[in-house]
Request: fold
Amino acid sequence: MLSREKLKYPFYCMFHPFDGFYEVRHREKGSVGVALLLVFLFGLSYSINRRFAGFVVNYINPRSVDSRTEVLGIFFAVLLLACSNWSITSLMEGEGRFKDILIVLGYSMLPMVLTFIPATVLSWFIAQNEDGLYYLLINVSVIFTVILAMIGIMTIHNYSFGKTLVTLIFSFIALLIIIFIILLLLYLIQQVYTFFYSLYTEIILKL
Amino acid sequence: MKNSRGKIYLVSIITVTVAILGYIAYICVHYFFYMEYKECLIDYAYEAGNEFTPLEDKNPVADGMVLAAETEFLKLYTNTKTTEIAVYDKRSREIVYSNPPDRAQDKIASARNKTALNSQLAVTYYDSTMTRATMYNYDYSVERGQFRIESLENGIRYIYLLGNLESPTGIVPPYITAGRLEEKVLSKLGETDARTVRNSYKKSETLEGFMELTSGTKASKVGLQKLNKLFEEAGYTRDDFYYDAEMASAGDFQEPTTFTIPLEYRLIGDKLQVSVPAGQIIETGTGKIERIDLLCFFGAAGMDEKGYILVPNGSGSLIYFNNGKKTDRYMQYVYGVDETAQSYTVVENTVNAMMPVFGIKRENSAIFAEITEGDTLAAIVADVSGNINSYNYVYPSFLLRGSEKVSVFGVTGVSADLPTLEKNIYDINYTVTYAFLEKENASYSGMANYYRNDLIKRGALSIKDEKQDSIPFYLDIVGGVKLQKSFLGVPYMGEYPMTAFDEAEVIIDAFLEKGITNLRVNYLGWFNGGYYHDVPDRIKVQRILGGKRKLEELNRKLIGNGASLFGDVAFQKVSYEAGNYNWRLESSQYYVGYVVSLGRVNPATLRQTGGLGYHETNYDVLSPKFLVRHTRKFISGIEKVDISGISLRDLGSTVASDKRKSNIINRQEAKQVIVEQLKKIADTKENIMINAANAYAWAFATDIEDAPANHNMFFIVDEEIPFYQMVIHGCIDYSGAAVNLSHSYDKQDLILHLVEFGLSPRFTLSYRNSSDIKYSGLNSFYSTQYQIWLEDAADIYHKVNEVMKHTANSTIIEHIVYGPGVKRITYDNGVTVYVNFSGEDAIADDVTVPAGGYVLKGVGE
Reply:
């Protein structure tokens, strides 16, 4: 069971990112469970936002929204980010462990979790000219999250700001490479499958 | 402790194995070994032939021909040299030839087309390299003398051997072993002859152990001729020749491609029956027959003749002789193209040919042909003079073997289309009957009358026994519709009640109040989850519409008012959303094992494989093999529901074969299965409504919706006629497409069209607004709210009923086109209707027909 303290800790991190993430790394204050819970909540609120946001700000066909795939997609994206970052930072003297990276990513999503649903509700009451209000809420939370994640990565790896930026750029490249390899693998599997299938068809036809 | 754990493992392994084996056994019994459909198939007999002797002819009428058979009405002549035939009609004294008698004078036909003009059969086949080629029976059989003639009861049979049997040396083998030469030839000849043969052979230098024909003999024509004669005398046959050739070539020798095809002519009363019993066709060599064009020029009309060709194009159309439209011939598959053979790309939106008939009308006579066997595999082809020859002609082209292009990926990853053929020829007795009409009946009206009377005689159609004093009004009610809903952001298919059963009562009350009592209500989506319903092997009346009790209440109310209720059901096109369906095993398959699955035509890509965003509109085609089970279960389910009729959405219009490799069911067999199912379903309920019914389904229908209300405007056709309607009017009540969903809406034009074709008005309506289902597969029902249409529907109905109530129980005996848009329809009770589609008043038979109006004559006078 998650302790009350651990559940409250993301809020502390939100307003004291340097101290908060430092203690995550060195005093085991964080929890992977809570981080994943936050990722899940973000996925949910993101999906709810897409499905239910008012038409003034929403350009998505609600019939095409499927929460299952969206939540899974967010999980996949976080995992991918964590993996690529870990693979780079472990080569560049980063001190953070994989679980720290996960926790940082999860905890820094808290601002988005907190604002997406209120923003969705707000979008039902605004007119075209007032959509600035809605976008302000959304954008502030997104920027907040990015800043939190940056600070978090910097803190747990014990990096300078410059080095953080460099590792992030490398992480991004690593991310592309991972995606590329996955696609390559899928393509190969498909090729093998079609080969065997056409072998089968030809046998069937010649019989 | 250890022991008991071992036991648990053992028990669980055994249970799992038994479960798996049980499941496999179930699949096998339920699907692979399920052969109930075979009971529906019909066999045919092959009559043994006798030696042909011409009959004695008291007054011969055909030059160079002998009498082969005679009946009360007809005489069948044949020329035993050219194998052409002629039919003499004793009533009209007209003679019809299988090949135009003046064909030698044809100035347009090229040499090859001259051969075609001389032929009775054109065989399209695939050779060893899978290239398509055509062989005519004239040059490949008749000219070579490779045919036999046999006598049948009331007819004759020609057995043609098509193919090039000639080798440079005739039947004299270029190589033969000494032993066989002695055994087969020398021992059976006299001393001098044997010496001649022996001298023509020498020991071969190239093939050890063989004798070789000397080069001197090979070069001498006279010598070879003599040798051939001697070999023949010795009883050496062509088969022996092939045997020796094969021995000498050590297996490299290929037998030449030949086809042995029997063609039978019989006189049956006033009809000529022509058939090709395909089970008797023999193929040798590598050639594989694909299709046979039968009697292409039977009754063909020359360039100086006047008349027309009748083709079953939608409602029916006429092609006038010599109309000069040379660019494209008419060709349409009977009952549309087989779903299993259809292209994924649909380039034109056409109405099917729903009747297996065609005809030729000449100055003083007419021929009306009906394909009675093999109709589902036939295409009807017609062309006018000037294109490849100077004749106007129409003929059936029969498919004998299915073929398919299979996309195969090579090692390089580039795909190639590999043509594949089915192994066996379809064993069908392909039969066409030609009826000969006398001068007063020589018209399309005469053909329609002849066809109707013939069908009535055969029990395939019957005159309505109930007399009605008003025409029916067809009302389709949209019930349950599948609609995407979402739960916690997870989408799922829900159902939306467009019209609940008690709301339907409101609609019906509204129509009754308007004085429309002869209602035929077709309830769409009343069971198993809405319009795109689960397979009908059990029946659950939609709860959201009010359930079974409310449905039966509605049924009683309608019957009480003299109306009837139909429950709409689809059997063969099974929606992707349908439950209880094993699509992998129960659907028709292509040759390689892909499932036949189609959908709506995408207007941008023209492909019919998608659902345009609504996958419930995608469907798999149910194999005829499992149709039997589905209908059996449906019947046992529907018997428990008190509803007066069943409406068959696709059973009367779709015929799809199943090409699954282990169990091919051809289209003709599929039709036999379907007819058997129609028979069973027709026995369960009083009223049967069939959508777009093909001719074979007429026997079982009391009502038809979607009767073809127009023809396809192919370039070659000249006149649209309501041939389909002329045959069934007075026998079956029918309507066309729904008025409120048709693409144009000109009320007067519509009423005229209904009056001309004898169509009852039809509307597709709902209680709620169509916009509620705009995001569903039924968004094609874009304007169905009943209040919008009530006034118009009543108005149209009463205007049409005013005219057609006088003719509701009569048959159409004549339809005449006076000029552009001016027509006269005569019924057998003496009522005559004139319609004028044109923008100006017209005078016909001293009757002035107002522009865009109609005149009714012969009522109560």
